[in-house]
Automatic annotation (TrEMBL):
Residues 1-224 form the Glutamine amidotransferase type-2 domain. Its EC number is 2.4.2.14. [4Fe-4S] cluster binds at C240, C386, C443, C446. This is Amidophosphoribosyltransferase. In the C-terminal section; belongs to the purine/pyrimidine phosphoribosyltransferase family. It is an enzyme of class 2 (transferase). Gene3D superfamilies: 3.40.50.2020, Glutamine Phosphoribosylpyrophosphate, subunit 1, domain 1. It comes from Falsirhodobacter algicola. Binds 1 Mg(2+) ion per subunit. The lineage of its organism: Bacteria, Pseudomonadati, Pseudomonadota, Alphaproteobacteria, Rhodobacterales. It catalyses: 5-phospho-beta-D-ribosylamine + L-glutamate + diphosphate = 5-phospho-alpha-D-ribose 1-diphosphate + L-glutamine + H2O. Catalyzes the formation of phosphoribosylamine from phosphoribosylpyrophosphate (PRPP) and glutamine. Keywords: 4Fe-4S, Glutamine amidotransferase, Glycosyltransferase, Iron, Iron-sulfur, Magnesium, Metal-binding, Purine biosynthesis, Transferase. Mg(2+) binds at S287, D349, D350.
Amino acid sequence: CGVFGVIGVADAANFVALGLHALQHRGQEAAGIVSHHPEHGFNSARRFGYVRDNFTNQKVMDTLPGELAIGHVRYSTAGSKGATAIRDVQPFFGEFSMGGAAIAHNGNLTNAAQLRKELIERGSIFQSSSDSECIIHLMARSIQRTVPERMKDALRRVEGAFSVIAMTRTKLIGVRDPLGVRPLVLGRVGEGYALSSETCGLDIIGADFVREVEPGEMVVIEDGEITSSRPFAPATSRFCIFEHVYFSRPDSILGGRSVYETRRQIGVELAREAPVEADLVCPVPDSGTPAAIGYSQESGIPYAMGIIRNQYMGRTFIEPTEQIRNMGVRLKLNVNRGLIKGKRIILVDDSVVRGTTSRKIKDMILDAGAAEVHFRIASPPTAWPCFYGVDTPERSKLLAANMSEEEMRDWIGVDSLRFISLDGLYRAAGEPEGRDPRRPQYCDACFSGEYPVAPSDKLAEGFEM
Ligand code: 5GP
Ligand code: SF4
Ligand code: MG
């Protein structure tokens, strides 16, 4: 998911709509905005579909007045069962003794099922099926006198990954979990401030990047003043390395590193680790593009657009059902036949999850008359599900959980298949010594199986680490 908020600018909701539009790659199912105006109070709009199709409508935007607003783009993760209902669309709103508050959450809480059960037994009335709603109910039960203090109480009880943006009548609040698994940045816009999942959200509204909200930090912005606090026990940060590989936009800066540059460097590392003789390096667009550029630069093999993407389709993976996803590959990608015929092709993609994409692309490329197909993957084999907010399927559906690399190569049906090593990935992400096995610098659980936060709900369901 993506979260965005602004305070201290006229028509804040318009800024939020733009910010969410820049964060659309983080979730395409639905979007919501809550605003506050001193006379009109809190207002909200929640819609299915793209931001641009809902929040450019003047009638909708007119219902969201005020100088303070937050928003959310939704991408449903493993925890949510079935299709999204509109009641699952954030921000969530709660009315407390000291006034209302709205929250928007990116990440996934790993103990939400237990918390929900306990809260329901004690009388909470849940409105949605979302893990994030626990935060509002925990806030309602807190005895603290202010919303930020109630948030601290609530967030000390939840486990997992969270970057949360919240608002009251007068405050914009941002928090990151102690490990800082998901991103959150702070920007300055005119006389006001903005919080965004990624820096590309700041760019679109012309905000200046100020700094990241740090792992384990809460910032409260009111009347142009920022107050920072540390509600949690100190921990070593474990930012999601997959944000660098795939999830974030390449024009964002994460942890002081350009995502594009990390991806290009992954390609460089891949070319060193897994060279092969070929005629062309082609990305699987768009997610494989920067790594393909790096591979081409390092290997000296020419880069070419062997696969063309239809710009009007979304991210295939994000389509929630398998059937739609299966069609999606063809609806979205097509082979540039004239270029491919008779050539030995290196295809660079960001990841292999179920393997559906790779297999279909291989078929299309061979159909177009390629002489050889070599897959190079910009992440290590995805052998474990993510429980922190990225939608990976259960283990049984992960190709790498069930097959060796050689078996995967066979199943996909290509001449060679190589993945970047974990150390190579860490080097590309700015760790020259690679991964520190005693204190890994990032979360890489989907590759290593080392979960930095025990997925307690899943363990209770019988998941074996
Ligand atoms: P597969 O077809 O192997 O299941 O999925 C791989 C494709 O989906 C890749 O081309 C990649 O761009 C995209 N993808 C890979 N991993 C993820 C993920 O965890 N989340 C999302 N949203 N997309 C992914
Ligand atoms: Fe990111 Fe993978 Fe960790 Fe999930 S498990 S937070 S995708 S690195
Ligand atoms: Mg892709």
